[in-house]
Predict the 3D structure of the following.
Amino acid sequence: MKHKFCSALSPAVLLALGTIARAEAGGTRVPGSRLPNVLIGLGLIALGLFLFIAMLAGRQKREVVVTPTGLPIPMPLIPLLFLGAAGIFLITTGPPDTYVLDDVRYALRADSASALGPAKDAHVPELLTLPGTVDGVPLTSVGGFGGSGVVEVKLPGSVKEIRKDAFKGCASLEWVQRNGLDEMPVCIGDGAFRDCPALTGLAGMNRIYELGAGAFQNCAALEEVFVKGGSDQSVEIKKEAFRGCSALRKVHLPCVSSLGERAFAECPSLEQLEAEIINGNMYKNTFEGSGKVVVYTDSDWTVAQAHKAGVETAPAGL
């Protein structure tokens, strides 16, 4: 009898040991709830059916829309098809699982992971080091640490995106480093480092292809920005990207696809901008409230845009 009892407990013991091993590895997976998606999906399908019936009862029942392929579709079918497809997509596509590792929450998909910020009631350390893989998938996106007391951030080379407001308002943040290849392009979202007055620079992110609106706004300690580029990798700079960077002296952006309004406004220390604008504009307020700026370029278009913005130009390489 005793033998049978121990045998019955064996699976439970093994399960407990497995749980302990998983805990020692530092991670816990929480499956995402499908219920919200199912409810919204059913609502969209119901709305599509309602509009379909309403249009059949109205004048639209005889109207036909011809698609670009020449296929005629009765008007009442359009909302049913679109809303029905959206509803089915939501029902069959559940939200990503959540994974907690070292007090940081992650969203897990089949081939990538996104850092969501600290777990509930967790303290963000001064040195925040994020892993290259989370439960077997690469970490590609980071966000959710705004307002924390982090001082230094170390990211893996797999990160392709620093999301909107990722580190906004981190008053003590001084340095962000991405390990691995500098050549991996990265997108820095709107307000990602806004109001980080102690931030002095980034490492391992020389290939930036998009700087969101206000990405470095009010980063008062930032002195120099160097971004590699060329005709094959242009940089999109959105409005107010560096507004209020009072210590910013030099910016190297060799290939700019667009330059937003007030991108370098209120930068009194800014002296040198190395850039080539391939199809964007400089606005009259691009350097509003800044010091005497010289744009170094060999592009006639960039020279014309710089003069329109009221700044001087000089040949590149001087």
Residues 35-92 form one domain.
